[in-house]
Amino acid sequence: MSRKYVYAFGGGKADGTAEMRNLLGxxxxxxxxxxxxxxxxxxxxxxxxxxxxxYSKLNRQYPPELDIQIREAMxxxxxxxxxxxxDQENPLLVSVRSGARVSMPGMMDTVLNIGLNEQTVKGxxxxxxxxxxxxxxxxxFVQMYGDVVLGxxxxxxxxxxxxxVALTEKKKARGVELDSDLTADDLKELVDExxxxxxxxxxxxxxxxxxxQLWGSIEAVFGSWNGARAIKYRQLxxxxxxxxxxxxxxxxxxxxMGEGSGTGVAFTRDPAxxxxxxxxxxxxxAQGEDVVSGIRTPQPVxxxxxxxxxxxxxxxxxxxxYKILEDIYLKLESHYREMQDIEFTIQQGKLWMLQTRLGxxxxxxxxxxxxxxxxxxxxxxxxxxxxxxxxxxxQLLHPTFDPKAEKTVIxxxxxxxxxxxxxxxxxxxxxxxxxxxxxxxIILVRIETSPEDIGGMNEAQGILTAFGGMTSHAAxxxxxxxxxxxxxxxxxxxxxxxxxxxxNNLTVKEGDWVSLDGSAGELMLGQVPTVVPDLSGDFTxxxxxxxxxxxxxxxxxxxxxxxxxxxxxxxxxxxxxxRTEHMFFEGDRIKAMREMILADDIEGRKRALTKLLPYQRxxxxxxxxxxxxxxxxxxxxxxxxxxxxxxxxxxxxxxxREMGVxxxxxxxxxxxxHELNPMLGHRGCRLGTTYPEISxxxxxxxxxxxxxLKKKENIESHPEVMVPLVGTVGEFxxxxxxxxxxxxxxxxxxxxxxxxxxxxMIEIPRACIVADKIAETAEFFSFGTNDLTQMGFGYSRDDAxxxxxxxxxxxxxxxxxxxxxxxxxxGELVQMGIQRGRSTRADxxxxxCGEHGGEPQSVEFCHRVGMNYVSCSPYRVPxxxxxxxxxxxKEQGKAELKDV
Amino acid sequence: MSRKYVYAFGGGKADGTAEMRNLLGxxxxxxxxxxxxxxxxxxxxxxxxxxxxxYSKLNRQYPPELDIQIREAMxxxxxxxxxxxxDQENPLLVSVRSGARVSMPGMMDTVLNIGLNEQTVKGxxxxxxxxxxxxxxxxxFVQMYGDVVLGxxxxxxxxxxxxxVALTEKKKARGVELDSDLTADDLKELVDExxxxxxxxxxxxxxxxxxxQLWGSIEAVFGSWNGARAIKYRQLxxxxxxxxxxxxxxxxxxxxMGEGSGTGVAFTRDPAxxxxxxxxxxxxxAQGEDVVSGIRTPQPVxxxxxxxxxxxxxxxxxxxxYKILEDIYLKLESHYREMQDIEFTIQQGKLWMLQTRLGxxxxxxxxxxxxxxxxxxxxxxxxxxxxxxxxxxxQLLHPTFDPKAEKTVIxxxxxxxxxxxxxxxxxxxxxxxxxxxxxxxIILVRIETSPEDIGGMNEAQGILTAFGGMTSHAAxxxxxxxxxxxxxxxxxxxxxxxxxxxxNNLTVKEGDWVSLDGSAGELMLGQVPTVVPDLSGDFTxxxxxxxxxxxxxxxxxxxxxxxxxxxxxxxxxxxxxxRTEHMFFEGDRIKAMREMILADDIEGRKRALTKLLPYQRxxxxxxxxxxxxxxxxxxxxxxxxxxxxxxxxxxxxxxxREMGVxxxxxxxxxxxxHELNPMLGHRGCRLGTTYPEISxxxxxxxxxxxxxLKKKENIESHPEVMVPLVGTVGEFxxxxxxxxxxxxxxxxxxxxxxxxxxxxMIEIPRACIVADKIAETAEFFSFGTNDLTQMGFGYSRDDAxxxxxxxxxxxxxxxxxxxxxxxxxxGELVQMGIQRGRSTRADxxxxxCGEHGGEPQSVEFCHRVGMNYVSCSPYRVPxxxxxxxxxxxKEQGKAELKDV
Lengths: 900, 900
Fold this sequence. Notes:
Two copies of one chain form a homodimer.
Chain A: E1 6-10, E2 13-14, H1 21-36, E3 44-47, H2 49-57, H3 64-81, E4 84-85, E5 91-92, E6 94-100, E7 110-114, H4 120-128, H5 131-149, H6 162-174, H7 184-202, H8 210-225, H9 228-237, E8 245-251, E9 262-267, E10 279-284, H10 288-293, E11 299-300, H11 314-317, H12 319-336, E12 340-347, E13 350-358, H13 363-375, H14 381-386, H15 393-397, E14 400-401, E15 409-412, E16 414-417, E17 420-426, H16 429-437, E18 442-446, H17 454-459, E19 462-465, H18 473-481, E20 484-487, E21 492-495, E22 500-503, E23 506-509, E24 513-517, E25 522-525, E26 530-531, H19 537-549, E27 553-557, H20 561-569, E28 575-579, H21 587-598, H22 602-627, E29 631-635, H23 649-659, H24 663-673, H25 685-690, H26 692-713, E30 718-723, H27 729-750, E31 757-762, H28 765-769, H29 771-774, E32 780-783, H30 785-793, H31 801-810, H32 826-840, E33 845-848, H33 856-864, E34 869-872, H34 877-899
Helix pairs in contact in A: 4-5, 5-7, 6-7, 13-19, 19-34, 20-22, 21-22, 22-26, 23-24, 26-27, 33-34
């Protein structure tokens, strides 16, 4: 028996099923499934995706059996539809559509109305009694065939398509405006003119033979799989070339055969809210494309979807067809146990189903539908969890702009931290604080931010920067604060002096209102109204189920008691990263910090550090209290010291006055601390190694806070002291000795001990290589994948924006590696670090505290490589919890596949 | 039989030999060897290094057999020396000295004159007839024993040692100045006073029992192996703790027993020149330490070493002893087949040999001795090659200061590029060029250098910078130019405005003379005279032998025909790195370069690039011509574009005038190109990927030059086009396509082809991880270990100076990883890159072009991991050739050890 390349469907049965998506494509498999379910679909057949590959391999030739199988299948279609392909009296018309495993919208070709020619059009007219409709169908077919199959396209982008030109001229000659105003005769003339255009442009005759038309169309669809557009799309979406596309040949049905005909699209539940209503729109006497094109306003299918009572529903207009449609949607949903997006056409009163597929939905709808379906007994909890996309959750956790509001988008930047914010523009952190104190809502606009801007960022509704990427200072801090941020908005020309920015020809001044959409990266003029999300019980339910499934822990990155509380509310099981540097910017602290930096000797530094100690102790006390016994990882001071000194002349003078030293001294210090590449400079444990007194003070503050909390409120703490930027084992042991000594001293002062660990951040490539040695003394590793990505790739996150975007567009990188962890390169370093570390210390606790800890693909990676936990900003904690559950489900799915 | 811990020597025989260095230590093994050779050595015995370890393991206890073995050995010594240990009439005195496998000068303890007490001193007086000498010996012994064995030391660093205080007081009381002015009675009093000090300070009696004295001394020496000083020294020199030290107990002989006695040190050849003369110094009536302390001026042993005819030689003074000494030195040298450094003592006319060991020598001497000894048939070529230290060669290749000249060192910096240079201080590159044009010798002094300074650096005799490390821009460029450079001279406060620098309290102005010792990192005032080295035939000979042995190729890093010629003269077999960016700074080129950078679109850039093409082509033509068929690796443009724009206001204005654009435009461009971490920014292939037209122009220039050279002069070229900073396979394939396309175009224009390769620099950590993928299309890898070290460690080479020095001092890093390749971390990345690369492409050509390519330890590493070649600056080519030969010899040595 020869190989089966053609799968028929129609008449209540089909060769294929929904499971055969890989062979039949998504569309073909679902039509087959519908047919099997007894749902009326126009009969037809699917040529398999396998043929697409064979066709390429045979150098665009077909194996001889294909022709035989197609002819057989066509005979079946003719029987079911009661018409014959090419018959002059009762012609069968067919469509040819692509259909790959996954949807590639608009990437491949379609040809409709195949089978029309000078003879068959007459038969069609006789049968339909609608001459204009028939000539219009013929006209459309010649145009589509000429364009798609014969390739008669405009010569350059500037030119209009030749068929469109002829159409426009015809309307002009007839003195009409709309296509629909052309008469049957006009259209008939156009058919001839179109054929002449093909003859002139391509030197070939339009084929009158329906079989030639069919083969040409099939070839065009298979060919379009290897078209430039489709190849590019596959590259970007990482779809393998050898998947191929199927070709669906299907009898035509028409929703535009008069008022007894119509067409529509519908969802089996409300895709915006998830409510269990049949939600859809339709148009009478129209084709499918009319519903989506927006030329005519579609009408609701039923009362449930009516937005005003004067709208005419399908239910009222065609109650019988609607009843059938209702039965079908219920059957489809309960069959697929999933919300469906369906397309239907009613031809002269008879309902035909054209497509059913997974319905896209908002995050809120996804959550509600998943929970409802469990309650309805349609799906189990695991399936419910797997149906909510972690990345989508962001939508739920931040306020969003009212979708009905009018927006004037003036620029786009990177969607650095999701949310929606409106406020008045200010350019300096000081101004931000001042305005905010007066009750103003403000948006802080900076070329880039630095730790000096923390105060202003904290007061701002949102942050907008001209430079910097997804992990720039502004982005990281904003996400940590759960605050909306657009970074790297390159179109902005910011002028601090005149307190304004220009974008294109527009000038925005201090005090002007702007709105930021941090999820879309859109900067808008004026004050766009927002809606605050309400996290329903369904959300909590899904998260609980996710927690039952996931195996990897989820912690948070939080620097304050407030952030810690937010994260705990979102389900954080501990803190994976407390950055201590942010603690040095408020009020008097910065003075003491600067005093330490300016000190000429260790005694001077120690004096200043003594002033900082109580502040730090209080900070940790507050955090430990909120975390109530959960583990808290605290990173010792990380940034280079120059970040704590003012760089602007004015501020230097002010500092000099405040501290009673000369401006020259401050300038000299700033100068001596200047670094060409601060990212690779004197920071992290390098500071702790050269100034052990800093680490000593921080360690003491941690242990004093823990002891004090236990003594006063009998609350336990589990501090995990983390040494940053370790690249050699010597750095770690040096710092560990300082920390252990401080612990010993504090414990003996209090007379009791606190359970603590000392570990290190793994963020230097070399640390991954020598992880076995580091793990000899380090009790935990936390992968700092931000810096590891920076150093592993050699990309400064502050500067890489210039080329990273282009790299992604060109396909050199699949994603921005600061956003999605680069598993191929950086991920392998991480794996190496874990393996080597655990080769020395089998129970080494391993986590991640880079921004990737809240990114779903990266969470899956962390689960796979055996980390103990991920840590992310508070607002991403639910995302990470869900992603962690997905990782388990995916793994189980793979394991089941292996078992088969 | 119990284990042998004690090895006796003396009387023309010995238990040990020179081969037993690991067991007996260097000193013990060589004394044993001398004794076996019949050379007169004071008899004694060596307690093995093994005992040192046993002693530690037994918690500072000895196994019982040790005592028995020592008593047996002591009995032999007594027999040979004709005196008895502790005997009141004819006492034998002994010394106890440490002696590890490798010399650890000054790190461990020594005790002399053991065996003296109130009784034996009388016997010694009776025998020697020299009362004062005997009491002095006794006094010295009590002092040394009190200090070393009993630990009576000053309480703080500021205090003087108690014995010294007593000695000084005694001299004051006697009204004399020198120790030698004290009488026997004075010294006798001092013995009592010293003993009282011990009693007071340590609460113990000075032991009168000679055996107690001996055991105490042995214990002190073994104990000193685990002293803080010795442990630190071992850490720094990576000497394993379990090597242990041996203890040498040896009969005392005295060179200070009157005018018939003396002592001296000598070399079997001239250690400065290598000349075959017996070279040494002696003092009559003196102890060994007197010869080296410089209190008395030693005299030459013979006419050959006389510097003025009035010096009294040993040959004249003691002809008989000299004759014996001459026989011995000849015997020793021909026995060891190596130049020896010997110590001897003549006690009352009788010559005793105390030590023989490898003689240290200058590079010139090392070369001459090695070649001479081959010619004398003493050693083979391989041994000769192994006897010249590659690192020493630098001395030979650069001019050095006249060692006799007077020097005023005013500051020290990093010895960034060896050599000696004097010149007048200038602070700006322009000034340097101007002054040089007037024939002035100048030293360019900068806070740090940038590519803008190339012109001035080229004209300078030497370069001095206040910032930057061993691989800073200044250092790298200077080494490339073979020019003397001191970098990171932190004590300098440079004031560009007033054209002066301050160092401590001294001010040096523009035009003042200074001298730089690039090998020592010393900055000197004034014009110190230099001597130019003459590379003798011996040098050429050694290099030829090295070439016969080595397996790895040696190429050079050279950017100009001149540098290429220098390198070829030094033996370079090709170019491993031609940096093309330096080519864009001269004359009109920089204008065209800047025009390109300022261009707003691709057409503008292409216009400017068209102007640069002929310059580039000529550069490559010149280099290809010099290299005459040898392979030439050319790296495409690497630095960020802002390096080509002026950053100072004045220069920006000048550029604006020259180019006819507004200053604002230039400032805006400089601003938009500004990067926070330029090291990790828009550079390398990231430039080529976003501006392919730059790569295209460079590739075209390379291929046109090669074709032109073949056409005009029939000289072949083998260009290897190198894409810098590749981190993903996509970047490489993108650039390779551009290069291959340019090659095709040029070849079709010329009608013939040139053999070329396209490969990549591996300098991004991620590139090592994905090397297998990169090697699918890359034909060669060249490891850029400078950047790989920067990114692998996360150290900016321009900024790391602040902590790197401290890291090395603290032992966190064994060496500056920019100087010696970090094999543990970065080296493993390199190995991974090679293995993965060759897993895809077995014949992948692999080299190194970082600064490490000329550093001996790193060259050995490159050989070991299977690289095809190393590449280094022209002046380091001989160093690399020799180091490569050493790597083979070392490997063969290890293989032989395995075979045994």
